[in-house]
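Field reference: "sequence" (input) and "structure" (output). Example, Striatin interacting protein 1:
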Amino acid sequence: MDVGGNGSGLPVNNKQRAMLPNKTRGEFTRNQRKDSEGQSEFPDLEFEYSDTDKWAAELSELYSYTEGPEFALNRKCFEEEFRVHVSDKKWTELDEAQHRAHAMRLLDSLEVTAREKRLKVARAILYMAQGTFAECSSEVEVQHWMRYNIFLLLDVGTFSALVELLNMEIDNSAACSSAVRKPAISLADSTDLRVLLNIMYMMVETIQQDDPADKPEWITIKETFRTELGSPLFNNEPISVMLFGMVTKFCSGHAPHFPMKKVLLLLWKSILFTLGGFERLQSIKVRKREELGLPPLPEDSIRVIRSMRAASPPASASDLIEQQQKRARREHKALIKQDNLDAFNEKDPYKADDSREDEDDNDDNDNSIEAETFPLERDEVMPPPIPHPPSERVSFPKGLPWAPKVREKDIENFLESSRSKFIGYTLGSDTDTVVGLPRPIHESIKTLKQVLQYFGEEEVETCATELLYHGILPSLPQYMIALLKILLAAAPTSKAKTDSINILADVLPEEMPTTVLQSMKLGVDVNRHKEIIVKAISAILLLLLKHFKLNHIYQFEYMAQHLVFANCIPLILKFFNQNIMSYITAKNSISVLDFPYCVVHELPELTAESLEAGDNNQFCWRNLFSCINLLRILNKLTKWKHSRTMMLVVFKSAPILKRALKVKQAMMQLYVLKLLKVQTKYLGRQWRKSNMKTMSAIYQKVRHRLNDDWAYGNDLDARPWDFQAEECALRANIERFNSRRYDKSHSNPDFLPVDNCLQSVLGQRVDLPEDFQMNYDLWLEREVFSKPISWEELLQ
């Protein structure tokens, strides 16, 4: 796949290829559960979607297992510096004034010119941010001191100093040129960057956590930090813009040593902290609707989704074959038992062994999304099937989970077709005039307007979202291409390419593994590394799309269009074109090596068996989170876009999406069903007939749009699929919006605002130059009094 015009996969040169275990070459599939294609039932996944995973999990994912030895090195650097000033006490025994004094000393030492000395001090600060773990006896205690130390570091101004140092490292041309010339890049090439990014990530991630026990001054510090992080205070741009710049520099090949996983994690958490998560999005939406005088939302989408239950997955191919074989055997037995044709009137040959009843039973128990075609062409007249007892039937919910919606455009189309049919003329965009239309049409319009989806025209307020959009606007296309390149390289379906980017720079050690155990551990680390990158990128893209859409629709459309131009739609479909259950249940983690567990407890001896067994979790939280995010992004890109919906059809997404329904998690199934719904009428009658369970699931779980006959395709769009025309029209509107709001040079006079009010134009004060004022009488005589004026011509 080509993202933004350049191929991107996972590059592994010869030296790195030797460093990876055999199973890692190409696609490393260790520790993934057995192929589950042949299983017909999977357990319900007890997964609760949220902005992030638990705090401990988010902290542990910052560090690769290869970085393990550096925890002790950070401690050593801190204690050497600490013992110079305090020799008889531990850090946890000092009072607040002494803590502050030492933090200030470390901050002053960061300004030295010697790189080695600066790195030691940075490691000492990192040890503080890690909770001075050597003096703690439990993970809870480590997290307590982390929070205390990080608020202290932030209060003395550490974050601003770290941003300056990070800028220095980004512009360090010597390190960049050295990394470009190296045949193989490892952890050692990014040491300084990793230490700085680790501290910054720990600070952002810890401060954004809500804790009811926080002191009032901490709450003030937190809100101030949130504002500063989203404002152009650091290098005259929000911190997120600087991190986006690191991503594009890495993808361009000028800085292959950048630790991209840490950059992406810090970028994600910075956006999440400054703009807010999904709960905050909902509250902003409610507030804006109130301000615009719009009716309140009919439901809270987050709560509705959390209350939904998963449907059973579709039957696999092997299950369907087995069902067909059983059905054939039963029909054969039934025919043998039938003595003669007269018995047909006395006994139904399909009563006990009726193939269709068995099929219904299987479908009801399975809720299979993949129903089989019925034997419709039967000549014999058959009695109606015996109804099942109520207990055997699926219990449907009393009501549908979503309130129906309709757009104003849909009401216009309905009225236009009604006027054309009954009266013979149309009125354009008039949605109120119903003169001459029958009474049922009046009732229909009344019903449609009760569920009308309102949109407000409002001024864009200056907020964190607006500042971020303004910051990334000049290079937004490059940022989107860079993110998709890295996503493609990290996807499990990607194959190694010689010309693609290397995303393993911050996970590969300097020396290659020498034992089987080391190779297995590195294999787990590499897979985990890729999964975390996918998680971060999917979260970044979804958050930006949602916030831009809420801030201004054209900001959302601009970003979405560049994602489409960079082949985001086929990329996501390629990601899902795998055994998705194996990806979601993958066990690429070693819990005893996760921070902070590994710095508090004695580590047990790792064995090949313990690595193979993995953890006891039912599923991998980050992988399920990533899958749901990617599905939501795909929904946002294709919603109400005919040409993009046709891309889903052309890329044959239906079978790929149907396989994703195997995952028994309500939220993931909902977004898969939404994607299937928008393309159902283009898939043909045979597909709909063969997938009636899919249609039923869509009806039950997806919001209904009145007048949308998605299930039948009667009003199939006669428009030709002109991708370029639709996208170009949208692009012209977006460019007009961007030029009008953000082009301060006003290079195009067509976009300048025009004052059409005569009084305000004449009332403007115009400052005339001094020489004109001195010669005003002469000007009047020459230009006014001495020239004849033809009033008739002037008035005409």
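The longest helix spans residues 516-551.
The chain has a mean pLDDT of 80.
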